[in-house]
């Protein structure tokens, strides 16, 4: 269907539209018009992504003189694939109605590991080895060597791509990663470098958060993006954590040992070069005197993860004199490693600010702040000069330099915490020095500054006023949408008591109580016999899940559960978890039914949908609070209190409830879908906890369902499932439309949707 | 043990108290034969295995002598007392194997011949069916016992009932059990620290399927390097070490014993399998790809110790195996289903069969190119929002006739009859058409029908119109008479006796008509007589219906006559057809001297 929103003709690939999608588009358009940032919360299962894509692409089509670029950030690769698949649908629709002028180029971008088509490189285990494997074949000096000596292996795909030179372009269209690989294979061009090249010409780029937020990556990939871009962070409820992770580094004994080995190797290399090719080192020195700006001219294959977010002026500054010579720099690094080793040898937990730490480095190791700041770039330059291709071997020294640059750059928003052992296992000494970032706004600030509009959207952004404070920005539009349902297709319940009427909770003093564990098991056992197809269970942590599953196994509950449904479990091994998920889906598809055990805050909770028959019921066992004894968390809470006046308790509850809501919200995809959600902890019945849930869940949480025991929940589940099995009118009857057709929209004109919705 | 028979000395006891008849017990795959030493004594026994339902036996170490108690399906039992426990064990294993096998081997499809020799079991089944279904019993009594239909004819249209009962077990292939194999609990004898595991081929197959490394080890080690018994001892030793969760001890033991290490180590075949499987996984949940994309998961980057990440001991990682892994693996295997379709006899054959089926599936897996298509389809299916759009294809399941016999049974019976008296009857038309020609002509006629419609519709439009008119009229009159209550049907208003009578007549008329129409065209003398019989039976019912009509009170008479009218019409149609056919036949019979009897 197509319709007008003010001056923009919106092309929407379906015959109907939800009213909330329509108003979402109106708000989004307002933000685009104002060229400002916005914050939009819309329940999962109301087609956020397609609404967003179709508005922004239509917006850009309607203003051909100044087309805007869309940079769409997802948290995971599979979300990226899904987004691109939706975009493909939309693009086909637009082409059908507008003809060739609607053509756009949309690409997904990922790492070499996901894009490489060279079988020898792909054989490597992890991302770093794939990166290194690629570099071994494509680095400029390797290729120069290969030109002289045909025995030096190169990558055929990259050579072809280079040969095609400017002819190597992607024709317009929507390319998923798989499409890119297929295209690369067909043409014999390297898809990774082709995609990297095409990023600056594409109308839509879909990639992972890190490509914008992590300064190490953003420096190379996202450099060329123009200001007239719309940046979208989808599923952004965790964006503060991503920002913080991007700027946090930890140093352990293994890191230091590895770094020492790396330094020895570098020193050998330097000696070797001195003997054979001293001019190289000298030319590097000269280049460094002129400043680091030269970096931009490096061949595309030589760049690596670049330095942490450095203000532009630093790039123009010359490298300090004391580290320009390779040997001197090496000495600095050795002293730094030595100093860090000394700091690790401690019996007590120590906490320090970056300023104090830099001062102490300066006095003990004689390295000043400015030198520290340049470490990362200096190392990069040195490794290029020394023609080191197996970069995956040098991760340790990179970590050290990363650390040095971060403490040299930022004076606030960080703290350094040294712990001699893990609190939970005090008998095992495992000292760690952590540089942890507390301020999410640091990493995202360049993004807000650089781009015209940044859209932060998710199904759970409650309380919506907290995010602007955490990320330190001023949205022009900030809205939370409710869900207009045709029927009550979600059924949240709070279960406070087990079948024996005793309270259940994962509170610290109760969680290992055998009665609670048994009650949880009984709950699941009752539910598997009632609920068809898929059931998903979330636990508060891996260790708790392991414990509870072992107990259930010993007491035979697990066996009884298995008689009804197959059981799959998320483990810390990603490959195994992926396969388990795949099998889980197949079990649901074939009607066998299955239960999936997962962990809140885990990878599955973050990105996998359990819609339709893949999840008819989610059980959240407990409240997923963070581990409150963690020193890092305490430091962060303190920082939040001092800087943003956010109370510790409030933040912890907010964080726990957004995780719970996130877990639970994965069951619904559309209004035709239905699912139940059980919050199994007595603490959910308290108002201060519950009220932090997003409004679309709260509005369906009836007072009668706030304090249930297992048998009552079972009864409600039976009733609910019976009700959902009945046929219903999809458009939602006459008084309150939940599905709009094109005529409906035309009849209403602008504005009246609001009256109908609210 | 794999041989097809077992012979042991034993005593046969009719009851537990019976002192028993000494003799020789011989068991083959088909039957149990007991020959007493004293040929004059009465205890001779010859039982087929298919009558044996189960077995019980006394435990070693208990006060009772070694008894084996075989129960048959009539709740009788045969008790044998052996000389020692090892004899008992041999026999027990043998019986177990045979019983397991007979449960799975499907019965050969038998064609029912007119004068079939019914086995006792079949007879029993029929009796049981009749006993359970009183309506069926009534029909049976009415027609079969009165000689209108023969026993075979009556049952021929109900083959489904018979089949379902008989083949209940074999219809569906059994999958693996949902329970985990770690649930095999050892039995202890209580005196020593020795534990005994009972492994059936079923369990072994499951172990092999879930743990390919064990499977491979079995194929390489047994029997060249160690005996099967040693192999399993080692296996359970390893399982025990796992269950103690003491990875240090496991590592230590593995260092000493390289065969044991095979069981303790992570399964490398599984690892490589999962690496190939991950490429075919649904891209909307491929979290492995994230790992490759996620720059925060560089070592030492991101927040390291905030309690969300778990602590594991990294040493001896090689020898750690968690319950979750086992559960996942188990569920995956159950989901895959049983690939092996051989009779589970001994471990060796199980292992080899599994290896074969693995090879097949791996060659199938090679053709991996076309899976990318499927992956794309799955993504697009996952992304579409279903209710925003009219469904593009109606969610209809294609009609699938599971058992065509239900529909063609009656025809088949008639066809069989023909085979009996073909020579006496019609001359056989010699057809020498190739299948292609047949196909061609069939296609042609179908396309003609498609283009022009049926020349000769099953129901003429005028007739259909008439029927519909009558129906609407009768419905409207009943509505008028009964009022608005939709729950109440006409039948409910009738007296119970009349209602039952009507229903019974209705079913019997249906039964007769079914046989009647199925007999046309009359090709054999057998059918000829059958039709005659049926016609007589039908004309009997005719006046009975009239009688009912007369017996009801006047206010209901109209209703009843409305109900009876269609029955009359159906009977009329049949009798008319019969008479028309008879006339045609008699007209022709002059030309054919050796017509039908």
UniProtKB/TrEMBL annotation, chain A:
This is DNA 5'-3' helicase. It is found in: Nucleus. InterPro entries: ATP-dep_Helicase_C, DinG/Rad3-like, DNA/RNA_helicase_DEAH_CS, HBB, Helic_SF1/SF2_ATP-bd_DinG/Rad3, Helicase-like_DEXD_c2, P-loop_NTPase, RAD3-like_helicase_DEAD. Belongs to the helicase family. RAD3/XPD subfamily. One of its GO terms (cellular component) is nucleus. One of its GO terms (biological process) is nucleotide-excision repair. Pfam families: DEAD_2, HBB, Helicase_C_2. Keywords: 4Fe-4S, ATP-binding, DNA damage, DNA repair, DNA-binding, Helicase, Hydrolase, Iron, Iron-sulfur, Isomerase, Metal-binding, Nucleotide-binding, Nucleus. PANTHER family: DNA REPAIR DEAD HELICASE RAD3/XP-D SUBFAMILY MEMBER, GENERAL TRANSCRIPTION AND DNA REPAIR FACTOR IIH HELICASE SUBUNIT XPD. Residues 7-285 form the Helicase ATP-binding domain. It is an enzyme of class 5 (isomerase). GO terms for molecular function: 4 iron, 4 sulfur cluster binding; 5'-3' DNA helicase activity; ATP binding; DNA binding; hydrolase activity, acting on acid anhydrides, in phosphorus-containing anhydrides; metal ion binding. Its EC number is 5.6.2.3. It catalyses: ATP + H2O = ADP + phosphate + H(+). PROSITE patterns: DEAH_ATP_HELICASE (PS00690), HELICASE_ATP_BIND_2 (PS51193).
From TrEMBL, chain B:
It comes from the Eukaryota. GO terms for biological process: DNA-templated transcription; nucleotide-excision repair. Residues 1-14 have a biased composition (Basic residues). It comes from Theobroma cacao. Residues 353-363 have a biased composition (Basic and acidic residues). Residues 112-166, 191-243 form the BSD domain. GO terms for cellular component: transcription factor TFIIH core complex. Gene3D superfamilies: 6.10.140.1200, BSD domain. The gene is LOC18590160. Residues 1-20, 353-376 are annotated as: Disordered. This is Probable RNA polymerase II transcription factor B subunit 1-1. Signal peptide: none annotated.
């Amino acid at each position: 269907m197509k319709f007008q929103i003010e001056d923009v003709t919106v092309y929407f690939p379906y015959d109907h539209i939800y009213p909330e999608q329509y108003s979402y588009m109106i708000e989004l358009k307002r933000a685009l018009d104002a060229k400002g940032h916005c914050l939009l919360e819309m329940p999962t299962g109301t087609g956020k992504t397609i609404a967003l894509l179709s508005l922004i692409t239509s917006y850009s089509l309607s203003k051909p003189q100044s087309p805007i670029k869309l940079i769409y950030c997802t948290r995971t690769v599979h979300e990226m694939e899904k987004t691109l698949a939706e975009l493909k649908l939309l693009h086909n629709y637009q082409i059908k109605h507008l003809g060739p002028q609607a053509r756009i180029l949309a690409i997904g971008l990922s790492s070499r590991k996901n894009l490489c088509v060279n079988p020898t490189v792909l054989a490597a285990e992890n991302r770093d080895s794939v990166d290194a494997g690629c570099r071994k074949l494509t680095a400029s000096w390797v290729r120069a060597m290969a030109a002289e000596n045909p025995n030096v292996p190169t990558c055929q795909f990259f050579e072809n791509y280079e040969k095609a030179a400017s002819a190597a372009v992607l024709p317009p269209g929507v390319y998923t990663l798989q499409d890119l690989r297929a295209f690369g294979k067909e043409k014999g061009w390297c898809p990774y470098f082709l995609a990297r090249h095409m990023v600056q010409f594409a109308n839509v780029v879909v990639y992972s958060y890190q490509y914008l937020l992590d300064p190490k990556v953003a420096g190379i990939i996202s450099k060329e993006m123009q200001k007239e871009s719309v940046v979208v962070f989808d599923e952004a409820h965790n964006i503060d954590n991503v920002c913080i992770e991007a700027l946090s580094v930890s140093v352990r004994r293994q890191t230091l040992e590895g770094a020492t080995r790396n330094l020895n190797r570098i020193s050998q290399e330097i000696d070797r070069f001195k003997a054979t090719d001293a001019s190289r080192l000298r030319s590097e020195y000269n280049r460094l005197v002129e400043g680091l700006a030269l970096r931009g001219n490096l061949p595309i294959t030589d760049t690596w993860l670049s330095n942490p977010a450095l203000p532009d002026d630093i790039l123009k500054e010359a490298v300090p004199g004391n580290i320009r010579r390779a040997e001197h720099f090496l000495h600095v690094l050795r002293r730094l490693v030595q100093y860090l080793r000394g700091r690790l040898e401690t019996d007590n937990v120590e906490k320090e600010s970056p300023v104090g730490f830099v001062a102490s480095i300066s006095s003990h190791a004689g390295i000043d702040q400015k030198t520290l700041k340049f470490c990362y770039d200096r190392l990069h330059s040195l490794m290029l000069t020394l023609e080191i291709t197996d970069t995956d071997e040098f991760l340790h020294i990179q970590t050290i330099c990363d650390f040095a640059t971060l403490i040299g750059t930022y004076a606030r928003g960080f703290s350094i915490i040294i712990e001699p052992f893990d609190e939970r296992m005090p008998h095992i000494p495992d000292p760690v020095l952590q540089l942890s970032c507390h301020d999410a706004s640091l990493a995202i600030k360049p993004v807000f500054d650089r781009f015209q509009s940044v859209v932060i959207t998710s199904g759970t952004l409650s309380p919506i006023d907290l995010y602007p404070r955490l990320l330190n920005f001023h949205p022009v539009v900030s809205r939370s949408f409710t869900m207009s349902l045709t029927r009550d297709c979600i059924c949240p319940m709070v279960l406070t008591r087990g079948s024996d009427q005793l309270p259940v909770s994962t509170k610290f003093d109760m969680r290992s109580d055998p009665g609670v564990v048994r009650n949880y098991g009984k709950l699941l056992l009752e539910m598997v016999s009632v609920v068809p197809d898929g059931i998903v269970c979330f636990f508060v942590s891996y260790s708790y899940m392991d414990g509870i599953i072992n107990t259930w196994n010993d007491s035979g509950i697990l066996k009884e559960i298995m008689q009804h449904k197959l059981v799959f479990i998320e483990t810390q091994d990603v490959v195994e978890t992926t396969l388990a998920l795949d099998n889980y889906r197949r079990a649901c598809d074939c009607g066998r039914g299955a239960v999936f055990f997962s962990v809140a805050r885990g990878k599955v909770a973050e990105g996998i949908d359990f819609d339709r028959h893949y999840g008819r019921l989610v059980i959240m066992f407990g409240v997923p609070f963070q581990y409150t004894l963690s020193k890092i968390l305490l430091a962060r809470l303190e920082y939040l209190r001092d800087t943003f006046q956010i109370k510790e308790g409030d933040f912890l509850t907010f964080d726990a409830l957004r995780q719970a809501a996130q877990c639970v919200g994965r069951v619904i995809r559309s209004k035709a879908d239905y699912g139940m959600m059980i919050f199994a902890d007595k603490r959910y019945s308290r108002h201060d906890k519950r009220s932090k849930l997003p409004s679309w869940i709260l509005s369906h949480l009836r007072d009668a369902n706030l304090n249930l025991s297992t048998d009552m929940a079972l009864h409600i589940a039976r009733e609910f499932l019976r009700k959902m099995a009945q046929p219903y009118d999809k458009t939602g009857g006459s008084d309150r439309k939940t599905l709009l057709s094109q005529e409906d929209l035309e009849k209403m004109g602008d504005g009246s949707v609001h009256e109908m919705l609210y | 043990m794999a041989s097809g028979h077992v012979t042991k000395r034993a005593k046969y006891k009719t009851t537990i108290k019976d002192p028993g008849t000494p003799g020789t017990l011989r068991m083959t795959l088909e039957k149990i034969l007991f020959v007493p030493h004293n040929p004059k004594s009465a205890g001779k026994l010859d039982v087929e295995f298919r009558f044996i339902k189960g077995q019980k036996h006394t435990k070693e170490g208990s006060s009772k002598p070694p008894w084996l108690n075989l129960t048959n399906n009539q709740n009788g039992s045969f008790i044998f007392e052996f000389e020692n426990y090892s004899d008992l064990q041999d026999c027990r294993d043998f019986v177990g194997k045979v019983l397991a096998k007979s449960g799975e081997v499907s019965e050969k499809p038998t064609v029912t011949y007119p004068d079939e020799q019914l086995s006792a079991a079949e007879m029993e089944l029929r009796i049981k069916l009749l006993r359970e279904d009183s309506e069926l019993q009534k029909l049976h009594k009415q027609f079969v016992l009165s000689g209108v239909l023969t026993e075979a004819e009556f049952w021929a249209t109900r083959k489904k009932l018979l089949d379902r009962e008989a083949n209940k077990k074999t219809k569906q292939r059994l999958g693996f059990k949902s329970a985990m194999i770690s649930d095999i609990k050892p039995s202890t004898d209580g005196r020593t620290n020795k534990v005994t595991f009972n492994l059936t081929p079923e369990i072994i197959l499951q172990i092999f399927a879930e743990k390919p490394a064990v499977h491979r080890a079995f194929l390489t080690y047994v029997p060249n390097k160690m005996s099967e018994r040693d192999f399993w001892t080692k296996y359970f030793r390893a399982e025990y070490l796992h269950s103690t969760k003491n990875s240090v001890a496991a590592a230590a033991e593995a260092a000493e014993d390289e065969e044991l290490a095979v069981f303790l180590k992570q399964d490398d075949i599984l690892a490589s399998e999962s690496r190939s499987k991950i490429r075919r996984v649904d891209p909307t949940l491929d979290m492995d790809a994230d790992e490759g994309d996620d720059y925060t998961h560089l070592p030492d980057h991101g927040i390291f110790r905030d309690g969300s990440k778990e602590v594991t001991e990294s040493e001896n990682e090689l020898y750690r195996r968690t319950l979750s892994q086992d559960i996942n693996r188990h569920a995956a295997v159950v989901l895959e289903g049983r690939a092996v379709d051989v009779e589970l006899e001994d471990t060796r054959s199980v292992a080899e069969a599994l290896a074969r089926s693995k090879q097949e599936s791996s060659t199938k897996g090679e053709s991996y190119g076309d899976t990318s298509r499927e992956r794309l389809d799955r993504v697009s299916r996952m992304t579409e929002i279903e209710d925003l759009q009219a469904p593009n294809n109606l969610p209809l399941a294609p009609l699938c006739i599971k058992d065509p016999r239900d529909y063609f049974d009656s025809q088949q019976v008639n066809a069989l009859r023909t085979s009996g008296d073909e020579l006496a009857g019609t001359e056989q038309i010699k057809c020498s058409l190739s299948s292609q020609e047949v196909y061609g002509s069939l296609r042609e006629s179908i396309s003609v029908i498609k283009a022009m419609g049926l020349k000769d519709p099953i129901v003429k439009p005028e007739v259909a119109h008439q029927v519909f008119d009558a129906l609407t009229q009768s419905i409207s009159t009943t509505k008028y008479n009964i009022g608005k209550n939709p729950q109440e049907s006409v039948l409910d208003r009738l007296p119970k006796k009349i209602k039952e009578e009507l229903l019974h007549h209705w079913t019997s008329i249906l039964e007769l008509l079914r046989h009647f129409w199925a007999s046309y065209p009359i090709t054999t003398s057998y059918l000829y007589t059958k039709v005659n019989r049926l016609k007589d039976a039908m004309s009997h019912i005719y006046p009975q219906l009239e009688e009912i009509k007369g017996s009801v009170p006047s206010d209901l008479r109209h209703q009843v006559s409305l109900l009876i009218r269609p029955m009359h019409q159906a009977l009329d149609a049949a009798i008319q057809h019969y008479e028309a056919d008879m006339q045609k036949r008699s007209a022709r019979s002059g030309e054919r001297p050796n017509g039908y009897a």
